[in-house]
Amino acid sequence: MAHVNTVGPSSRMVVEHCKKKNIPVIWHVHTTAEDIRNSFIFSNFYARISQKWLKKLYSKADYLIFPTKYTESIIRGYGIQIPGTVLSNGIDTEIFKKNDEKAKQFLKKFGLSKPIVLSVGFPFKRKGIHDFVAVARKMRNYTFVWLGAKITSVLPRDVREMIKNPPQNVIFPGFLDREELVGAYSAADVFFFPTYEENEGIVVLEALSCECPVVVRDIPVYRDWLENGVNCLKGNSNDDFEALIEKLIVDKNLSDKLSREGRKVAFERDLSNIGRALREIYENILGRCTS
User: Fold this and answer.
1) pLDDT tens-digit profile of 115-137?
2) Quick count: other Cβ atoms within 10 Å of Cβ 233?
């Protein structure tokens, strides 16, 4: 059995080889046409032609795994009826957990003072980079940190300029290793993720696992597992985000509540649970093949 996680040329070769050998293929859906848009240069053109290509690829599988119900609805909308199930990508809650010492090291390395508003990911328009900076301009007393590889060669000009000349209270340190990333989540007062489109949002799981209170855009992907006011705060505009960030920093009780409840969400998606679910899927598929 093969478990495929990407949509590149090598994945297609693996799948075609498996089909010739009658080896069952599970395709873990991490890519849709919707999450290609507004990313790198020419991404919108690529997104327009990718739906038919993705449909053809995913249709080669014997079984599909979707990270969220939202992603399943997108793929079913392409007309793909292959059997499948929803299963989170998961998070290692033993690695991603609040660490005060790593937080101190992160603050010291970059010479930062709190309050800190953090985001993590490629600096794409789809990820809300423009909104992140716009909110930062209105909240000059807070430090805004966006972590993630800058890959400037493939970014549109306006994003490259934003990274090159950010407001004084915004920094773009680039890519950090996992230990430093845990330190960043542990040091931040708010994790602000204004993305417009995700299939799950691994960085949201990382922040929740590290007990960093989360502010997200109210988009469909979160509606069945993140609850506004319980384990996160949701907004729809930059004015909303400004008010929500301010609320979290001022209201320690609310911040603590979201941190506790967010950690529970991460525990539900711990890799140990995901592993057990995957094993059951594998056994069922193999059982059908041998019966």
Assistant:
1) 999 999 999 999 999 999 999 99
2) 25
**Rounded to 5 degrees, what are φ and ψ at 148?**
145, 150
User: Which residues on adjacent β-strands are paired with residue 116?
Assistant: 143
The strand pair at 143-147 and 116-120 is best described as parallel
Token digits of residue 188 = 């931040």
Contacts of 139 (CB under 8 A, 6+ apart): 117, 169, 242, 245, 246
The residue whose two tokens read 């038919």 is 52
The SS3 call for residue 35 is coil
Q: What count of Cα atoms within 13 Å lies in the side-chain half-sphere of residue 199? A: 22
pLDDT exceeds cutoff 70 at 42: no
Q: What are the start-end ranges of the H helices in the chain? A: 9-20, 43-58, 69-77, 100-110, 129-138, 157-164, 178-187, 202-209, 238-250, 252-268, 271-290
- Tally the C-alpha atoms within 13 A of residue 184's C-alpha that lie toward its C-beta: 28
Q: Of 50, 59, 53, nearest to 25 (Cα)?
A: 59
Using DSSP, state whether 166 is helix, strand or coil: coil
CA dist., res. 30 & res. 174, Å (int): 23
What is the pLDDT at residue 290? 60
Lookup: tokens for 185: 């989540």
The Cα–Cα gap between 114 and 118 comes to: 11
157's tokens: 């000009």
The backbone torsions φ and ψ at residue 86, rounded to the nearest 5 degrees and listed phi first, read -95, 125
pTM: 0.94
Given a cut of 80, whether residue 45 has pLDDT beyond it is no
pLDDT in tens, 212-238: 999 999 999 999 999 999 999 999 999
- SS3 at position 12: helix
